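Researcher: Here's the sequence for the chain we discussed earlier.
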Amino acid sequence: MTVVQRAKLLLPEGTRLVHIGPPKTGTTAVQGAFHARRREVLAQGVRYAGRSRHSGAAVLAVGGRPSFQRDSGPPPMRRWNDLAGEVRRSTEARVLLSSEFFADVEADRIPRIADDLGRERLHVVVTLRPLSRLLASQWQQYVQSFMRLSYDDWLDAVLNGPPGKVTPTFWRRHRHDELIERWAAVVGPERMSVVVIDEDDHDQVLRVFEQLLGLRAGTLVAEDDVTNRSMTLAEIEAVRAFNNAFWDAGLRNALYHRVMHFGAAAYMKQRQPKPGEPRIETPQWALDRSGEIAREMVARIAPSGVRIIGDLEALTVVPASGLSGDRKPGVCIPPDISAAMATGIAVVSGAARGDARVNTLVEAGGAIGLDAIPRASGAEPPGLHRFGAYPLAGSIGMRLASGMLRRVDRLIGRGWSNGPQAAGPTPPQVDVAVEAFDRWTASAELPQATRERLRSGALAGRRWAKLSIDGDETCIDPSVAASLALGVLVESGLALEAKDGRLRAARLAWSEPPELAVVPSPILAGVVVSRLLRDIARRLTNR
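Model: Thanks. This is the structure I predict for it:
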């Protein structure tokens, strides 16, 4: 084992540092900090490659992995060619490229990646956490990516079943010894570093990256990103119920990722969980099994010749389960979680635009309000710093195009309608859920006509509910939460329904992350123009 003192971490000038994850090991913290401090790190001779926080589409393209934005096929290869070209052409002393999607790349594609980036100057860094701490977070991430398995069933399949039976990317990412071996076979173990995340020091990973790249201590600051928090058990079970309803209705991957993965789930995470709200707990048998696997992995990583930064043995830690037994209790959904999911779908569809207040969500009487858009000169709505000027300009164009096509769909939909069909009597727990939804849309200050239309869609969505538990004013069946959200999806115009109940995505079904979706197009246009003018002024000044 090669344990490196932090004072000796600095990589040689000319290094292209590639951070390959895997997911849930501090990647979001690293990417967010570097993206927010692009100018500061560039002034110190470090380029953070790419225009956005995470150049995921480019890595999916070179890895041949399906795009989140399409129902089939990877993103266009030009995304990777552009990114690799930026890295090769860089004149800065050091370059960082970070994407956890590199951990999903098959072995036969790694040589192409290394050559495109400049193999002779490459150094690969892997960040690792104990496997026992990754199980719950990875399951909920898979659920937010359209998986429908329960936690117990997923654990059994992953830990007891043959590798790749379900979520095949899990072991490709998290068989950490094999991940390191795949990349070391191409770049060499002497050009790889493994950073063991210190669970007691949340800034440790940023300090390590500062030292690897020669940045001044404290240059990187962790972002306060509430959308990266873990979901509670009830929240993720509401999403899982929505997944089942979405799949049963005939809808598929691309629309799902736009609506849920990058939209409503992020909106839900901005609510403040109530004290005592149950978290996802891993049964002891799964924790013990993960410890056994972790010890196998450490035994292979230790003599591999890669640089080890941190305590490798910390990866074998097995915590005690918070469950009294091996099975979790049944789950019901508090009405405000159901309302959050349905409101999130309304928001990302653009229904909350206009004079709706924006972004920072504040719990108020069981519902969520939106802070006012800053109107001061030069001020931007909070959250837009995550998006570049050109993607924002593209959003304006897509809003116009999708709006026109939605109108066309309504007129010549060949039997498709844009509103849910009539349903039968309303179960009491549906009334409870709809009342909670009313409170949330009221706190978001949606226009009355919009609120009534969305309420009608939510109520009509009850036709998809498959009740299995008796709900009350504090707890509703997961399928009720899912059905209301599906009704709002149809009412928003992102999906169209036929008389037989089948659904399809609207043509050019455009939706946006919550912090972007609520910003009116005129204000968004002002932000784009302001940024472009500032960029032109900087270029003229630097001539």
